[in-house]
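Hi everyone,

Forwarding the result from last night's run.
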Amino acid sequence: MTQRLSIRLAVPGEEQALEELWSRASWANEGDREALLAQSDTPTVRTADITDERVFVAERQEKILGFATVEPLENGDCEMTALFVDPDVWRGGIGKLLVTRCCVATKSQGGKYLQVVGNPHAEGFYAACGFESLGTVETSLGTGLQLQLEIQKLL
């Protein structure tokens, strides 16, 4: 019997576990390794985002398998500022479940769109979730995809 995956709010004290998952997922993407080596910053999950209920965790049998963070925008929409899944469970639907949870958060505050600056290596994932391209933007890791998802398409 497969254990059920749950999506829940992160709790204070999980910052280190989330940062370690972030690092593992980032380094597992071969296309980003050169840019990561040039970075001096380490991934940081802000306690304030956790206490403000902006960080969602995917877990199975008390093991964290992924997380996403949303940031409210002035117009009521949200930006997904982090989405990371443990490389051992990539392509298992966890990322899409986390995107869906971020859409629920966006809808609950009256928003219509979930925004994200996505990694070009994940373009297929974002397209499969229903995100539409708004162009590109320069980030500390190189060119990112500016994307948005009309949440009614997913919910």
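The mean pLDDT is 89.

Cheers,
N.
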